């Protein structure tokens, strides 16, 4: 029996977005219609400019981000 796997096929990700327009922050979660286990992938949009630095807290619960707009976000 041979498995047919199309590894060169491009599949566009589909994200669900949570937005806070007042603070210019959003988190997008990858939609998964199947009930199979998956790797939870998300895309974060923080601020309007590029990120200069980021660091995780020692307990890996918090993320501090300094962006081009001059703000430190935790």
UniProtKB/TrEMBL annotation:
Gene3D superfamilies: YVTN repeat-like/Quinoprotein amine dehydrogenase (2.130.10.10). Keywords: Repeat, WD repeat. Signal peptide: none annotated. The keyword Metal-binding does not apply. InterPro entries: WD40/YVTN_repeat-like_dom_sf, WD40_repeat_dom_sf, WD_repeat_creC_regulators. This is Uncharacterized protein. It comes from Rotaria magnacalcarata.
